[in-house]
Target: Amidase
Amino acid sequence: MTNELVYRGAVELTELMRSRQVSAVEVLEAHLEQIDRLNPVVNAVVTIDEDGARAAAAEADRKLAAGEPTGPLHGLPISFKDTARTAGMRTTFGHPRHADFVPDANDLHVQRILDAGAILLGKTNVPEYAAGSHTFNRVFGVTRNPYDPSKSAGGSSGGAAAALASGFQPIADGSDMGGSLRNPASFCNVVGLRPTPGMVPNTDGTNVFCPLGVAGPMGRTADDVALLFSAMTGASPEDPFSVFPPAGEVPAKEPSPQDFAGLRIAYAPTLGGRVPVAREVLDVLDPQAEALAGLGAHVELTCPDLDGSDEVFRVLRAATFHAAWGDDLDADPALFHHLLAGNIRDGAPLSGRDVLRAEEGMTRLIREAARFFERYDLVIAPASQVAPFDADLEYPTEIEGQRLESYLDWMRAPYLFTPLGLPALSVPAGFTPSGLPVGLQMIGARGSDARLLRLASAFEQLSSCSSVRPQGAAVL
Model:
């Protein structure tokens, strides 16, 4: 029997704990029981510290009873993505050579989340070095979809998304270079936000000058994502491009589907004919676009300028990978999974001129996007070109009869928007006839993260999909 606490939202849980209707210890024990029951099937949480979490939960209850200050995430258990460094807890990056690596310090976003009162529980599974949108590695194996364990949970934040959907934790962190927050959110019926670059400082990597990869929040609802996001944002002197998010105005009322009335919405079901999309995905998204039009939104079939975005993304990604691991691959050709090894090799022939031209292309795309959002308020598109596929596959090789030439081809729906420097999220939109989740990608103007989350919350009321719990893992 599932303890209902594990499917209470993060916002609701914090209110229940502050009002002393439930304790942090009770919340933690409910989630531990859920992990013990279902994680052997889903394989989302790969490292866990029950004793440390119990001690932290007891301390959280003590602080509240003593009237001491508490943070906005007080008492919420969280397992962090296994590419995020956690002091005293192993961080494997999904690679055997780091199987026993224990950092001595937290990454900045981890520290901010813990400082806000969250309780460190464990780590969530990732692909090797988070390089891919299907979560499997040689250390922990494959993470399975809670809605159907024979299917992929997506990636690279697949363990995080599956943990949320399974009721293992109410909030989760993730990262996104080419869709690693948006794709697993789509596959697992949760919300994943890729923030505007700079909203969450880039202090955890070795290069602050590449804005492709960002850390961001995940949750089962947009309101829960907004709560976590508030703890992750804020400038850091270690990232000169980081910013304090604009305060904005306090909304006069709660989000409502009526918020879409009058909005100018660009609907890009195939990104202007640039990508193939499975019919079962479009059959979910097309009616949602029609529903928004029915609310009074001005929905138009159009797309921002994405010309050259594919080359920009692939060049900068390959250059980043080769800079990070090229020497290692040269020294040991068998060190990396063959898909990642191929991505690393793609960077070898690139010149400095190639990289600078890609950056010039990204500059043009950013400027064109700014002009586009003078005419439109929102873009909606698929978060993934396919529904969750068989977990035993490395990746889909065909969409609607169109053969895919490379591993990256099925991930283009999210990553073509990455070089534009915009906030983008996936919000639950519906299910295929076989019961697999489909997410709607929503993209806003640069810096409009808070507004985008508000619209996602309004959309949740329209689609009512977020409340549909997975049954696949529970019945096995």
Notes: The two ends are 14 Å apart (CA to CA).
